[in-house]
């Protein structure tokens, strides 16, 4: 993976490492929400919710647009799919290692049955 790709992966997983951000992402993937409406759903300040939204936006997991005085946030399904793809790639690496270990064990001539 390139350095740019590694930076993007870091940003995505950092954003998803927080339960509030994951919950915000679930909400905005289901439909567009104003940041004010999102803030009303959490027991934290509006500024704290704005910071969570900013982290998700910086990672590319959501986009914001203005409608009058409101900021509307929407989830980016393609970004979520890219995270799933990265995890699948890691899973395949580990499954390959386990398969090679299984082959080594099966081919061990000293192994007793």
UniProtKB/TrEMBL annotation:
Domain HTH arsR-type, chain residue ranges per copy: 1-95
InterPro entries: ArsR-like_HTH (IPR011991), HTH_ArsR_DNA-bd_dom (IPR001845), WH-like_DNA-bd_sf (IPR036388), WH_DNA-bd_sf (IPR036390)
MF terms in GO: DNA-binding transcription factor activity
Gene3D superfamilies registered for this protein in UniProt: Winged helix-like DNA-binding domain superfamily/Winged helix DNA-binding domain
Cited PROSITE patterns: HTH_ARSR_2
Recorded coiled-coil stretches: none
Name of the featured protein: Helix-turn-helix protein
């Amino acid at each position: 993976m390139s350095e740019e790709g590694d930076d993007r992966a870091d940003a995505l997983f950092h954003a998803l490492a927080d339960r509030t951000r994951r919950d915000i992402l679930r909400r905005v993937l289901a439909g567009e929400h104003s940041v004010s409406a999102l803030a009303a759903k959490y027991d934290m300040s509006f500024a704290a919710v704005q910071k969570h939204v900013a982290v998700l936006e910086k990672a590319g997991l959501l986009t914001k647009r203005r409608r009058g005085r409101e900021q509307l946030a929407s989830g980016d399904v393609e970004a979520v799919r890219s995270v799933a793809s990265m995890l699948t790639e890691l899973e395949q690496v580990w499954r390959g290692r386990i398969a090679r270990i299984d082959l080594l064990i099966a081919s061990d001539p000293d192994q007793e049955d």
